[in-house]
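P.,

For your records, the input lines for the assembly:
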Amino acid sequence: MSVTILFLGPLRDLAGETERQVEAPLDWNGLLKAVGPEVAEQLDQERVNLACKGKVLADKRSLYAEDGDEVALLPPVSGG
Amino acid sequence: MPKTVTKWRCCPRSAVARLSISTPLDVRLLDKGLSVGEALAAFNAAHEQAGGVVSFLGKVRPDGGVKALELTHYEPLTQPGMESLAQDALARFELDGALVWHRVGVMTPGEAIVLVAAASRHRRNAFEAADFLMDHLKSAAWFWKREKRADGWHWIEPRDADHADLARWK
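Structure tokens returned:
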């Protein structure tokens, strides 16, 4: 079964798709591998946040997503 | 059988179907245009005890040959984030109520993006609450924007000014 990875904002363009299904469970290292080097490089920056099951993770490196969970990659929000 | 003719009676109370506003907070994400006049009339009616109502309407600027603006969001975070922001404003400025409406989707120059309104006993609190809500919606709410110009779509990056705007309220 699977975890859904959502690419939001400009990360969508970088990933070339809006979402991707990967095998569960998924941890931080698994996520970095699953998204490809370009997105992984962004994800590693402090300004990019991670949400799992609709909640922003205080420590994104502690990610542990299980079957049916949604993991959203959140780049910095746009200003005015 | 005589033909039945439906006659419409003109009645000021029903001439405009009033929007239903939830109190004290009405927070919405909208994927279609918003009617500013109706929203403010309904908000005003919902807060008849308030001494003042301050509102702000943000619109798409036609600067730099912008043809369209697209706002995307992430529902599980964006809506709860806006609700918690409205809750903060309610408590911090002792408001009678607040309205926080934000568009998502594709908009063209001149269209409304955001409408906030604050009702309070005295004007100062309502002015400050509208300012507070806008600074946070612009810099801390989960929205991503891109603009369509002659050469295609461009994502809008965060600006330093947004962080300065937020720092005012720390």
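Two observations worth noting. Chain A has one domain: 2-74. Chain A touches chain B at residues 6, 8-10, 13, 51, 54, 56, 70, 72, 74-80 (CB under 8 Å).

Regards
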